[in-house]
Specification:
The structure holds two protein chains of two kinds. Chain A is an alpha/beta fold. Chain A has helices at residues 37-45, 66-71, 88-98, 104-116, 132-144, 162-177, 189-195, 213-216, 223-231; strands at 2-8, 11-17, 26-30, 52-54, 56-57, 60-61, 73-76, 150-154, 181-185, 198-203, 206-212. The longest helix of chain A has 16 residues, at 162-177. Classes of the chains: A alpha/beta, B mainly alpha. The A-B interface holds A 8, 39, 42, 45-49, 66-68, 70-71, 73, 75, 77, 79, 81-84, 94-95, 98-100, 142 and B 60, 63-65, 67-74, 225, 229-230.
């Protein structure tokens, strides 16, 4: 993304940020509440109109070549946004349909993802009848149903217990090893430290640093210290 | 649910058609109960189309599930088409069931199936488009009901469901021409009775014009992301 700007009236939520996430990278995008993380994600995914700048997904401009760009992106949003009347399996099959996929292959992929994320026993339950942790896993499965090349995760471990968090980390590492590019926002700095190869920190809509994780921690400080130093008023 | 409109129609047929209708002489060459059926079909098609689109879209916005569509590689026209085709399917199913009831209960059979299908399709697309517009504009569920309560229902009731324009005094008959629902019921009733108050081509042209305007607005609002994208 180049010089991305997003304004809401007179308020500038994202102020000319430029970032490049490399293919196959596990990229962390950190910042305090209201820094512009979700706005940036929404601009990449097409949920927010840009006020300025350019975003390209694997070379496809997300405005001029929006169909191809969107096909390559899978989004697991911060808030659950499932259709409450669908079963878990149907959530996945319907989502695949929105990307033009249908038939036996979709049903097989849905079953594979339900199995991978331990949701097979609940496949025919309505989403309102499953736990918060299961909803997180479903959100991840849905983001992957159309085989995206870029997975955007907006606080994927918010509100989940330690056991599931570790399990999610394991799945995310596996997905990244399989070649999936991951763009992660999180408030758990330990999570970013352990998973991400490169980290950018945003504050007040501007990028205050963007470095490989090792370089960011080179001075022997913890990520928390670095984060607080860069984001404190 | 498709049963509530069927039960409502049954009530109308029994109360107005069979009970009160026995005291009314023939209208447009058919019994009053037979005269009622086409108007009741249009009434339910309007209700089903508007309700389906407005509530589906509003719920999607309310629960954020609309985001699934907005991040997918689908154009505004494809999204609008999806909502409208869903409503049209529902409207056709309800119209078909009421038609079957009309045949069974009062021997009311459509004579012109082409006109029948054209009017149902146009009316459904028109009110689905209005449903999309109100589903986008509404801030609360109550706002969706405003159009139904204060515009659609009153205009439908005075638009010829229960009376022919020829039964009205001249002033009211002229006022009917400003009621868009009058054109839909008048054209649709012709597919049953072979008679109408206005020339069917004129009524169809009016409905098509209104449909084009409403569809255009719904498409424009969706394409600009009005209350959908920030």
């Amino acid at each position: 993304m180049e010089r991305l700007v997003k304004c809401y009236g007179t308020f500038t939520a994202v102020d000319g940020i430029s970032l490049q996430v490399r293919e196959g990278e596990f990229f962390g995008f950190l910042g305090p509440n209201g820094a512009g993380k979700t706005t940036t994600i929404n601009a990449i995914a097409g949920l927010a109109h840009k006020s300025g700048g350019r975003i390209a997904v694997f070379g496809h401009d997300n405005e001029r070549d929006w169909r191809r760009a969107r096909r390559l992106v899978g989004l697991s949003p911060q808030e659950y946004n499932f259709d409450r009347y669908l079963s878990l399996r149907d959530v996945l099959i319907f989502a695949a349909g929105y990307y033009g996929a249908r038939g036996k292959a979709v049903a097989e992929r849905a079953d594979m993802l339900l199995d991978r994320f331990g949701l097979t026993p609940h496949a025919h339950r309505e989403y309102t009848r499953i736990s918060g942790g299961q909803k997180r896993r479903l959100s991840l499965a849905r983001a992957l149903i159309h085989e995206p090349r870029l997975l955007i995760l907006d606080e994927p471990t918010a509100g989940v217990d330690v056991e599931l968090r570790l399990e999610l980390w394991q799945w995310l590492r596996e997905l990244n090893r399989e070649g999936l590019t991951i763009f992660l926002t999180t408030h758990y700095l330990e999570e970013a430290e352990k998973l991400c190869r490169r980290i950018a920190i945003i504050r007040g809509g501007k990028i205050v640093t963007e470095k490989p994780t090792e370089e960011l921690l080179a001075a022997g400080e913890s990520l928390q210290d670095v984060f607080l130093e860069l984001t404190r008023n | 649910m498709i049963w509530p409109p069927i039960i409502t129609t049954l009530l109308y047929v029994f109360v107005f058609g069979l009970a009160l209708g026995s005291r009314i002489p023939t209208v447009q060459g058919v019994t009053y109960a037979q005269f009622l059926i086409p108007g009741l079909i249009v009434l339910q098609v309007i209700d089903a189309s508007y309700g389906e689109c407005s509530s589906s879209l509003f719920q999607g916005r309310f629960m954020n599930s609309i985001q699934e569509l907005l991040i997918a590689p689908m154009s505004a026209a494809e999204i609008v088409a999806g909502f409208i085709l869903g409503s049209l399917a529902r409207a056709l199913l309800i119209a078909g069931l009421i038609t079957a009831l009309g045949i069974l209960l009062v021997h009311s059979v459509p004579r012109d199936w082409t006109l029948y299908l054209i009017v149902i399709a146009l009316v459904s697309v028109l009110f689905s488009s209005l449903g999309l517009i109100f589903g986008l504009v509404a801030e609360k569920f109550d706002h969706i009901a405003i159009l139904t309560t204060f515009v659609i229902t009153p205009l439908t009731f005075v638009g010829g469901v229960f009376t022919s324009a020829k039964m009205l005094p001249p002033t009211l008959r002229n006022l009917e021409l400003f009621n868009p629902i009058f054109y839909t019921i008048d054209a649709f009733r012709r597919s049953y009775t072979g008679e109408s108050d206005l020339a069917p081509a004129f009524s169809l042209a009016m409905i098509a014009l209104l449909t084009a305007v409403a569809l255009g607005i719904a498409l424009r609002l969706t394409a600009t992301g009005y209350k959908l994208r920030t």
